[in-house]
């Protein structure tokens, strides 16, 4: 399987490779899933950073014997949001993986492009072909 970052950064090369191989790959689905995954991961990381900072505030409030119920309730909601986004990320990653698995490996630049096997050039033979 091709590296996801390589495919995203070299969409034109991958499309050319698909054309040269006379195969189809769903690059639009790949790109949309890749971008959505990155966006969701960014949101989750933001929420986790918020949760970590507020957890420190809550522990400080409890050490000072102050009421922290509002912040605890708020963090429960943030935790639910994180769990929901994690589930969405899993779905998007499955979609991304399916799209990436349908992309063939890249051909070497020295490989000639032909319409079918009759246009392929035989480079060398070894041994006798079986009858």
Explain the layout of strands and helices:
Layout: H1 4-9, H2 11-21, H3 27-63, H4 69-101
Class of secondary structure makeup:
mainly alpha
Largest sheet: none
Query: What is the terminal separation in angstroms?
Result: 36 Å
The percentage helix is: 55-70%
Q: Give the averaged pLDDT, no decimals.
A: 92
Gyration radius, to the nearest Å? Answer: 25 Å
Judging from the principal axes of the Cα atoms, what is the shape? rod-shaped
Low-confidence runs: none
Order of helices and strands: HHHH
Annotation field: number of helices: 4
Structure summary, number of beta strands = 0
Strand fraction: under 5%
Explain what you see.
- Helix content is 66%, strand content 0%.
- It contains four helices and no strands.
- It has helices at residues 4-9, 11-21, 27-63, 69-101.
Provide tags for this entry:
131 residues, mainly alpha, 0% strand, rod-shaped
Summarize the structure.
With 131 residues, the protein is mainly α.
């Amino acid at each position: 399987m091709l590296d996801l970052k390589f495919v995203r950064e070299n969409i034109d090369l991958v499309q050319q490779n698909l054309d040269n191989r006379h195969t189809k790959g769903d690059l639009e689905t790949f790109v949309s899933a890749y971008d959505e995954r990155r966006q969701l991961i960014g949101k989750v990381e933001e929420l986790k950073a918020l949760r970590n900072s507020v957890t420190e505030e809550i522990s400080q409030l409890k050490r000072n014997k102050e009421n922290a119920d509002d912040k605890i309730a708020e963090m429960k909601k943030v935790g639910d949001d994180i769990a929901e986004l994690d589930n969405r990320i899993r779905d998007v990653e499955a979609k991304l993986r399916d799209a990436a698995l349908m992309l063939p490996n890249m051909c070497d630049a020295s490989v000639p492009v032909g319409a079918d096997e009759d246009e392929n050039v035989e480079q060398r033979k070894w041994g006798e072909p079986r009858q």
